[in-house]
């Protein structure tokens, strides 16, 4: 065999060995990836697996698109009714927070309500309101100010903070994720570990997933002193080992997402 042929033969052998090593390494990495971050297979509704067992809280979120010229009057009217409901112990509901969208859909009001007692409390509250003449008049007056409205019923993730009143001033970010059907448990599995990276600055307010309305929707609610603090807090998460893995494994679960920056109204418990 000539010297040139021997050189070609040696190069081919080395290339084959390197390719085999890479293939074996890749196979092992791929095989391990099946078990790293693997979600436990369970036969139960994700509402039972992901929500808090110690409470039976049900949440309602409202999105009201207001006529631009009516926003100030709308806020005043809404605040008056919310205060009355809070003072009346016969109504098993309470407003958690009220905001106007600053960045996102303009001239929009967002309200988050809590029903302690779940669906029975919701039903009881609706029955009482439908028999309340003052409230029915309020709805007629409010309807004149609105372009559109929609709502969702939500449960809170077991591993998130329960949203409690806080002093201000703060801005709030609501990050909404529209997930691929069938991925809610996997999402919860990853975020149950990841939430620890986002609690040091007390920015985590609450995390919810939809039950009625648009399905497979997640809302994460955060509080920041201002937009600069928001940027610094979010950037600091990337310096913590493990946060990048959470992003890597959850991004493929998302169909679309949106972010709202919101300013609390004067009567909002979350300031």
Automatic annotation (TrEMBL):
<keyword id="KW-0496">Mitochondrion</keyword>
<keyword id="KW-0809">Transit peptide</keyword>
<keyword id="KW-0072">Autophagy</keyword>
<comment type="function">
    <text>Protein involved in mitophagy. Accumulates on the mitochondria surface in response to mitochondrial depolarization and acts as a 'eat me' signal by recruiting proteins involved in selective autophagy.</text>
</comment>
<comment type="similarity">
    <text>Belongs to the NipSnap family.</text>
</comment>
<dbReference type="GO" id="GO:0005759">
    <property type="term" value="C:mitochondrial matrix"/>
</dbReference>
<dbReference type="GO" id="GO:0000423">
    <property type="term" value="P:mitophagy"/>
</dbReference>
<dbReference type="InterPro" id="IPR011008">
    <property type="entry name" value="Dimeric_a/b-barrel"/>
</dbReference>
<dbReference type="InterPro" id="IPR051557">
    <property type="entry name" value="NipSnap_domain"/>
</dbReference>
<dbReference type="InterPro" id="IPR012577">
    <property type="entry name" value="NIPSNAP"/>
</dbReference>
<protein>
    <submittedName>
        <fullName>Protein NipSnap homolog 1</fullName>
    </submittedName>
</protein>
<dbReference type="Pfam" id="PF07978">
    <property type="entry name" value="NIPSNAP"/>
</dbReference>
<feature type="domain" description="NIPSNAP">
    <location>
        <begin position="172"/>
        <end position="269"/>
    </location>
</feature>
């Amino acid at each position: 065999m000539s010297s040139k042929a021997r050189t070609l033969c040696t190069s081919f052998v080395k290339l084959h060995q390197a390719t085999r090593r890479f293939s074996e390494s890749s196979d092992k990495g791929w095989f391990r990836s099946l078990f790293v971050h693997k979600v436990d297979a369970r036969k139960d509704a994700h509402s039972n697996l992901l929500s808090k067992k110690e409470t039976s809280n049900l949440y309602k979120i409202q999105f009201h698109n207001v006529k631009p010229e009516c926003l100030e009057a709308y806020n005043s009217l809404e605040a008056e009714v919310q205060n009355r409901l809070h003072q009346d112990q016969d109504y098993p509901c309470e407003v958690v927070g009220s905001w106007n969208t600053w960045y996102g859909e303009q001239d929009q009001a967002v309200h988050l309500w809590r029903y302690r007692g779940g669906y029975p409390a919701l039903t009881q509250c609706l029955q009482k309101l439908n028999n309340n003449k003052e409230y029915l008049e309020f709805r007629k007056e409010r309807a004149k100010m609105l372009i559109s409205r929609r709502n969702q019923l939500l449960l809170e993730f077991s591993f998130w903070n329960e949203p409690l009143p806080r002093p201000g001033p703060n801005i709030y970010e609501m990050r909404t994720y529209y997930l691929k059907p069938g991925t809610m448990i996997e999402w919860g599995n990853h975020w149950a570990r990841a939430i620890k990276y986002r609690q040091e600055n007390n920015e985590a307010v609450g995390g919810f997933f939809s039950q009625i309305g648009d399905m497979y929707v997640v809302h994460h609610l955060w509080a920041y002193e201002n937009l600069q603090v928001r940027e610094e807090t979010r950037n600091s998460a990337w310096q913590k080992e493990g946060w990048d893995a959470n992003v890597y494994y959850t991004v493929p679960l998302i169909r679309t997402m949106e972010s709202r920056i919101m300013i609390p109204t004067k009567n909002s418990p979350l300031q």
